[in-house]
Amino acid sequence: MRIPRLRAAAALPLFLVGAAPPQEASAPSAYETVDPFIGTGGEGHSFPGAVAPFGMVQLSPDTDATCEIRTCYGHAAGYRHDDPTIQGFSHTHFSGAGHSDLGDVLVMPQLTAGAKLEPGDPRVPNSGYRSRFSHAQEEAHPGYYAVTLADTGIRAELTAGTRVGVHRYGFPAGQAASLVLDLRTSLYNYPGKILWSSLRLLPDGTLVGMRETRGWAPARKLWFAMRFSETIKAHSFLNREEKVAYRGFQGPFRGRSDAAEVQGRALVAQLDFGALARPLEVKVALSGVDQAGALANLAAEPGGFDAIRAATRSAWEKSLGAVDLTAEAPMRKTVYTALYHSLLAPSVYGDADGRWRGPDDQVHRAEGFTFHSTFSLWDTFRAEHPLLTLVQPATRNADFVNSLIASRQVSPDGILPIWQFHGRETWTMIGYHAVPVIADAYLKGIKGFDANAALDAMVASADYGPYGGLDEYKKRGFVPIDKEPEAASKTVEYAYDDWTIARMARALGRTDIALRFEKRSANWRNTFDRRTGFVRARKADGSFRTPFDPTAINYGSDYTEGNAWQYSWFVPQDQGGLIRLLGGDRAAVKKLDAMFDYDNSRLDYSHAEDIAGLIGQYIHGNEPSHHVAYLYSYAGAPWRTQERLAQIMASQYKPTPDGLSGNDDLGQMSAWAVFTALGFYPVTPGSGQYVIGRPFVEAATLNLPNGRRFRIVADGLTPANRYIGQVALNGRPLARGYITHDEILAGGELRFTMAANPDRRWATGRNNRPYSMTGY
Prior knowledge:
Elements: H1 14-17, H2 30-33, E1 50-51, E2 58-62, E3 85-86, E4 88-90, E5 106-111, E6 131-141, E7 144-149, E8 154-160, E9 164-170, E10 176-182, E11 194-201, E12 207-213, E13 220-228, E14 234-246, E15 249-254, E16 261-264, E17 267-275, E18 280-287, H3 291-300, H4 305-320, E19 323-326, H5 329-342, E20 347-348, E21 355-357, E22 363-365, E23 372-373, E24 375-376, H6 377-380, H7 384-391, H8 394-409, E25 419-421, E26 424-425, H9 434-443, H10 451-462, H11 470-476, H12 487-508, H13 511-520, E27 528-529, E28 534-535, H14 564-567, H15 575-582, H16 585-596, E29 614-615, E30 618-619, H17 638-652, H18 668-678, E31 680-681, E32 689-692, E33 699-703, E34 709-715, E35 723-729, E36 732-733, E37 738-740, H19 741-745, E38 748-755
Parallel strand pairs: 34-38
Antiparallel strand pairs: 1-2, 2-4, 3-6, 5-10, 6-7, 7-8, 8-9, 9-18, 10-17, 11-12, 11-16, 12-13, 13-18, 14-15, 14-17, 19-33, 20-23, 21-22, 24-25, 25-26, 27-28, 29-30, 31-32, 32-37, 33-34, 35-36, 35-38
Helix pairs in contact: 5-18, 8-9, 9-10, 9-12, 10-12, 12-13
Domain Glycosyl hydrolase family: 294-755
Keywords: Hydrolase, Signal
Protein name: Glycoside hydrolase family 92 protein
């Protein structure tokens, strides 16, 4: 079945559309409500430091940047809430990734008396430049972080602009001030990761440098420029490696030196400032292009600590102001912090002059857009990017699309990014999920990019045979497990991506492409085993691989970070077709219940790092499950969706450091919480629909990028009233279980009347269910 073209609802009068829900006079602002410490414990992998919306610089404390790669999983963001010491403050971090890198240009203030140049053992106080700290002496807000370093009494404050980070250090009176700058440290460090680095003190006192690393991303280059509010009175540059021989430069070990420049693979510097009458400010700009780019980025954001902090606070207030919430304090903090986490990536990675370094390791210039990177697409195509189409300007979303297209144009492989950061491709995860991001943006009316060039890039990625078994997929209609690992997952994810290509091609009038990819989008059926009722991996001869255990999770096997229970539901484009194969509505509901109610007591998933937040075989801590609770609505039982969402929100989110059940994955976990709290979710990006769940806030207003407002009200919302009794859109009863993107953009009001008992008739008819490619 094709999506019917729905007429956009008439906009309500401005006095009604614009009416914001009343807030208590004492309620803190959105900015004040955000708690950056949420997700810094447990497996959230978020960081508490200073960052501007989508900023290139993420200036944050690292509590252990010396762990070996196999033991660093819990420190993927650099900071872990239960650690007792801070090693220093570095300028680049991922928010909630399941893998890591970065931690670039680590700075630590210390007293000149007793200054040390090694980090030391966190178990042995004063064994190095790291310091103990107390959470009672910490403070964090969007764009600001502060802590008192207990071992030295230094008060450290951090803020950040788009391409700069600013430190402010208050030293005890009468004590000489010193900084250590360590270019040896990195998150997920291991021998040989630092390929080359340099430091140079310019005549005007500016310190510049670079380093090239071989980590998660290969041959990643980063330059920095650092200026100080006080004059450096003495400096020491050291190279700690035993031999220097790289790129034609050869030399002996360099010990303590007051030379103006040093190169090598193990650089550390001590900068002495003497006793200071006021706090020391350190302003740092980054560039992925060159030294001139770092210096220009430094000049592009003028002002000291207070000016940058004020500008970034203003930017955060504007960004967070996209949503006005009325809710109980814990829920309000959870949702606003989730919105904050959703606005950290994809991050700017082009210089102020438009230059950026691409996957070909060459420098390019963006014309008419700002280059962004840090695309965790396997995670973020689901809810993060759809959320940004509602809460960010169209220009920002166009920047994302233009960045994806530009990366593909200079990619040695001619494919859109898979998991890209700092312009470099990691080839992490599966699928070609830049495709649904682009298609969803275009189909929602976002302009500012060449749609036909975008479609060409999408098709090229879907046809790139060497990637992930695509040659076999195109030939057989499925990826064979005896030729390619994780074949079952790849087949169903490719089929969904193909559907979004077909949708965009139809909209552009490119019928030949639409017909080809509509056919490919049905390939998910080639992995479905009617006998067991699960999606399974098939061999090249067409047989399903045996033995088969739907609960087994083994990396590199049939499924990607999951098992048959999760992946058998990944048919977002054709849930109606899946429900028919399962035996109809009752059978589908029964299977969904079996998933959530599964007894895991005899299963051991300790070997699987990303498997967290289990409710039976539903795994909220990882993305393949994120749409599943909404699937009851496709089977005519939306009240069961309402029950499951209450179960998930209560068990998987809380306003504490361990308040995320799994990795936030660059905003996807958080975007799920924002959508679900509002009462709807984008199960199928590219369809233009949001499936109605149930709200968890009393009222919310979306202050949309087009200047209109869409209000959500939940009358009678209490813990006991967890069901939808009635739904009205712009004052008219709504019989269907979804709303459209166009209806939201038109402005208006979605009003829920909550009830203690389920309405088993609402939105159950086949014509009132969400989109499915082949109908119901």
